[in-house]
Design brief:
The relative contact order is 0.11. It contains 19 helices and five strands. It has two domains: 136 residues, 2-Layer Sandwich (Nonspecific Lipid-transfer Protein, Chain A), CATH 3.30.1050.10; 273 residues, Ribonucleotide Reductase, subunit A (Orthogonal Bundle), CATH 1.10.620.20. It has a five-stranded mixed beta sheet with strand order 3-2-1-4-5. The protein is globular, with a radius of gyration of 24 Å. It is of the alpha+beta class and 455 residues long. Bound molecules: fe (ii) ion (2 copies). One fe (ii) ion binds next to helix 11 and helix 13.
Length: 455
């Protein structure tokens, strides 16, 4: 008996039919899926080593070893080698992360079409995990990975400050990576939101269709609340870095905080001077958005007030830098900027988006540096915490994109925007950064400081 056999497929079908949580999560799902085993030793052609699941509104109507006809007729073909399937089936990586990182490839079907069904896919995999355990005795999901602070002792809050550095023999180490970012911030981050002329933007705004205005209000309200949240929540990280006596990082982080504050100001100027909106905008904030910005971000950052351990720092930085800045803000500003440029409208907001993109690229560069440094200094427990935190948050982050589009008809989206555009961009950037941090497992602190500042 093996994974991807008829027996396994039928066990999976029975388990799906018995799972109320799967039925609930997949109630909107229509269409068959092939799970393909790409490096199967018995493989004779490209279409004969997978399992076919005919999934329909929470039911699994048929489950069997896939035929060639099944491959051709299925809505999705998800393909991976056995090592990657086991990574997912043993709970070491979330299915969304595996797809976003290219471990599971979409040979058929679009990522945009799959996105609305993140929770159904997650439930399907959870059920498949139980089947794999019951039938084959596969290992339990690694709880050590999921639980924070497993192997690294919580550092007690220091009450005494580290000795001052700039008057010591060390001075300021201008060659360190954070100092190179600081130099860039001083050159590029000194723009003033109050200097931006929004007069043309206001005229352009009035000519937009109502659904286009609604989409821009929606996106801007997400950006606005996001920028205010990160401005408020960054402080515990600054405190940790200061208490650890990392002067060069602290110098750079002063610009980080100042830039976030200007981002808050810039978006509010859009509401005040372009859209001229005075009412409450929080109705644009969806369930997944609130969960990330109201619960996850404050919890991960706030934890640093009592827990300065490397793992707590890593979980905070993944939440703040990799997910909020990397997956959401950078992607949002990229698409927002492109829409305005392509339509040739709102030059003031074009400039805001371009400046924010440049600022955020430095913030992300710092985040990658911080996570890489933590991996070099503390090894695999930190790497595992990074990886599991990404698994926890990525599905919800993608759901935020999906929820932002749910208000508009699929065949008539404002600006012809497709969620797929957001996801593809986010995926490419995310993979690049994730790989970069993973490389730190084999690197020295010298290599980490040699990182090129991104621009
Ligand atoms: Fe920002
Ligand atoms: Fe930022």
């Amino acid at each position: 008996m093996e994974l991807f056999s008829d027996v396994w497929a039928q066990a999976l079908q029975s388990a799906l039919r018995a799972s109320e949580s799967y039925q609930h999560a997949a109630r909107g799902w229509e269409g068959a899926v092939v799970l393909d085993w790409s490096d199967a030793p018995s493989r004779a052609s490209t279409n004969d080593c997978g399992v076919y699941l005919d999934l329909w509104h929470g039911d699994c109507r048929v489950a069997r070893v896939a035929t060639s006809a099944d491959y051709a007729s299925s809505r999705y073909v998800l393909s991976a080698d056995m090592a990657s399937w086991l990574t997912v089936l043993e709970g070491r990586m979330a299915p969304t992360t595996a797809i976003l990182r290219g471990k599971i490839k979409l040979k058929r079907g679009s990522l945009g079409g799959l996105m609305p069904h993140v929770s159904a896919a997650t439930e399907l995999v959870r059920v498949a995990q139980t089947v794999s355990r019951d039938v084959y005795g596969a290992t339990e999901p690694n709880k050590d990975i999921a639980a924070p602070n497993v192997n690294i002792r919580v550092t007690e809050a220091k009450t005494q400050r580290a000795p001052l550095q700039s008057t010591s023999a060390i001075g300021i180490r201008f060659n360190l990576f954070p100092m190179r970012l600081w130099e860039k911030a001083k050159r590029l981050g000194i723009w003033n939101p109050a200097d931006i002329d929004f007069s043309q933007d206001r005229m352009d705004w009035q000519r937009l269709a109502p659904d286009e205005q609604d989409m821009l209000l929606r996106l801007t309200s997400l950006f606005q609340a996001g920028e205010e949240s990160v401005t408020l929540e960054i402080l515990p990280l600054l405190d940790v870095i200061a208490r650890e006596g990392r002067l060069e990082e602290q110098l750079y982080l002063t610009s980080f905080l100042w830039e976030e504050a200007k981002h808050v100001e810039a978006f509010r100027r859009f509401f005040d001077h372009v859209a001229e909106v005075t009412g409450d905008l929080t109705h644009y904030h969806s369930t997944s958005y609130r969960q990330l910005f109201t619960d996850e971000l404050p919890a991960a950052m706030g934890r640093l007030r009592t827990d300065r351990s490397p793992i707590a720092q890593a979980r905070a930085s993944v939440t703040y830098n990799m997910i909020v800045e990397g997956v959401l803000a950078e992607t949002g500003y990229h698409v927002y900027h492109r829409v305005l440029v392509e339509r040739g409208i709102m030059p003031g907001m074009q400039r805001v988006a371009a400046l924010l993109k440049a600022d955020e690229s430095r913030h992300l560069a710092y985040g990658i540096f911080l996570l890489s440094r933590l991996v070099v200094e503390h090894g695999d427990p930190v790497w595992q915490a990074i990886s599991s935190r990404m698994d926890e948050l990525l599905p919800g982050a993608i759901q935020i994109i999906n929820e932002a589009f749910a208000a508009y008809p699929v065949d008539h989206r404002p600006f012809n925007l497709e969620p797929e555009v957001f996801v593809q961009f986010a995926m490419t950037q995310f993979q690049r950064r994730f790989d970069r941090i993973e490389r730190a497992r084999r690197q020295s602190i010298h290599d980490v400081h040699a990182l090129e500042a991104m621009e």
